[in-house]
Amino acid sequence: MATYRGESIKEETLQLLRDQHHAAVEAQGNPASLLRLTQLQLAEADRKSQQSAMQIEVLTQALQDRQTLLDDVERQLRTLQHRDAIIELRFERVTEERDELLEQKEQLYSEVTALKDELERVRERADELETECASLETKLAALEGPEGIEEFTPGLMAIGMLEMVGFARISRRLDEAELVSLIERVRGLCNQVSAITGARFFHTRNSDVTFVTSTASTGAETALLLSESETTTALNDLRAEVRIGLCYGQVYATAGIILGPTVSLTERLSSIAPKDAVLADASLIEQLREESTLHILGEREGKYAAQVMWQRPVRGMGVVEPWLLVRAPDPQS
User: Fold this and answer.
1) What pTM was computed for the model?
2) Is beta strand 200-205 parallel, antiparallel or unpaired with respect to 208-213?
C-alpha cells in the first residue's frame, strides 16, 4: 500500500509486523518455529548492536571535538590571564574576553560531561546487546542439537577455538540455503581435519568451533590446517575474518559444557588473533618444546615455529604474552 501511494513505510508499521510475525512463529510451538524465531531474534539483536556501535562512534567523535575545543579555550584563557597580569592598560578588554572564555569553558564542560554520560550509556547498551547475541547464538546451537559434549573426558590437553568474526552480518546477506551450505562446509572441513589429526570438534555456537587434542603438536597441526584451508579463504571472500586461539592446560567438563581458565584464555586469544592466524599461549609453546616439535633457531629443528607478540591486558585474564604460531621454515630454502 505504501508503494502504491508513493509513501515511505513507517518504522512503527515495520515493528508491528515484526511483532506479529514473531508471535505467529512462537504460537506454532514446534522446534523449526523456535529455531526460526531465535534466528529472527538474533538478527534483531545484531541490528540493534550495530546501531549502538554507530552511536558510540558518533558520540566519541563529538566528545573528541568538544574536548579539542575545551583544550583550545583553556589555552586561550591561560594566555589572557598572563596578559592580564602584565598589560594593565588593556585590563578592561582582557577582563571582558576572559569572562567570555570562562563562560564558554563552563558550557563546554557541561557538554563534555553530558557526552561522556551518553557515551557510557550507549556502551553499556552495546555490551548488553553483545551478551544478548551470544545468548541467542547459544540457544540457536542448542535448538540445532548438541554434538556429544557430555561424553567429554576432562584433563590436560590442547584446546583451540576458531572464531568467525562478522558471521552475524553474513547470515543476514545469505538466504537459508546458502547459510546452511556455508555451515556444512565449515563442518565438513572440521571432519576432514579430524580424520588427519584425530582432533575432537565441538560446534558450541554456529559461528564458533572448538576442538581438543591430547598433545600440543596435534593441536598446533589442527589449528594450522584450519587456517590454511580453502573454506577459510571462502569465508574471507565473504568478509568474515577467521581467527584461532590455541592453549594447553587443564580442561573441565560438566553438564555438557567445557570450562576452566584454559578454555577462557583460548576464547580471549581467538578474539585478538590476527586474521587467518593462530595465537597460542606460553603453556602451549612450552609443551611444543617438550614434544620437540618447535623450531628454535640454532638449537633444533621442528615442524612449527613461534614468534612472541607484545604483552597486553586481556579481559578477565590479566596481562598475557601470546605467541604467533606458524609452520617452521624449510631448512633447504
Assistant:
1) 0.52
2) antiparallel
C-alpha cell at 181: 551450505
Asked if 187 and 316 count as a contact pair (C-beta separation under 8 A), the reply is: no
In terms of Cα–Cα distance, which of 143, 118, 168, 129 is closest to 38? Answer: 143
Tens-place pLDDT, residues 321-332 = 899 999 887 665
What gap in Å lies between CA 138 and CA 44, rounded to an integer? 16
- Measure the CA–CA gap between 85 and 88, rounded to whole angstroms: 7
Give the C-alpha separation, 314 to 278, whole Å. Answer: 17
Strands (E), 66-154: none
| Spatial contact of 224 and 279, defined as CB atoms under 8 Å apart | no
Question: Are residues 262 and 249 in contact, defined by beta-carbon separation less than 8 angstroms?
Answer: yes
Report whether 283 contacts 323 (CB < 8 A). Answer: no
Q: For residues 268 and 321, what is the distance between their CA atoms, to the nearest angstrom?
A: 12
pLDDT digits (tens, 9 = 90+) for 193-240: 899 999 998 865 556 788 999 999 999 999 999 888 766 665 555 556
Place of cell 582432533: 199
